[in-house]
Amino acid sequence: MSKLQQYRMKYNYSCQDMADKLNISKSFYWQIENQKRRLSYETALKIAKIFKMKPDGLFYEDYVKKIHG
Length: 69
What we know:
Layout: H1 3-10, H2 15-22, H3 26-33, H4 41-50, H5 55-68
């Protein structure tokens, strides 16, 4: 489970809730959460803001795991 998914569940948001907040489709959001689509810095900022975090705190650990497997 990605850190993003953990935070989404902690805040009791559905994928559709997040998509609505970001003004993107549910499937696009799901792909971001499941690392099937690259995340723009702008979108990373918006997501981090929803959870009152900095983007590095939310995404960096998952990024390192993906790169170094």
